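dude i think i finally got it to work??
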Amino acid sequence: QVRLVESGGGLVQPGGSLRLSCAASGRTFSNYNMGWFRQAPGKERVIVATINWSGGSTYYADSVKGRFTISRDNAKNTIYLQMNSLKPEDTAAYYCNINPPHANFWGQGTQVTVSS
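look at this
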């Protein structure tokens, strides 16, 4: 069974940092472009950052550019999202998926709450 499992979320103060991980199991995702997405309460799920299969090309939403860094370790079948200078508006459930996303690969997500 193919699974993407997100971890690393939590409660952090404004200005703090978190590192999210997305571990894939059941198949290798090293040939796939991958992405991080987030969904705030009452809002649609939106793209945060993407990375191509080799890690050589990345994209960031304007709202996180300069603060977040997406990376991947294909040997570990894992992608990461380093989040710095967190703001209250970053509060959301964060998900990983292939890019463009596939309905079968949505996991449970990991909650990030930025609050003082």
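The mean pLDDT is 95.
im so relieved honestly
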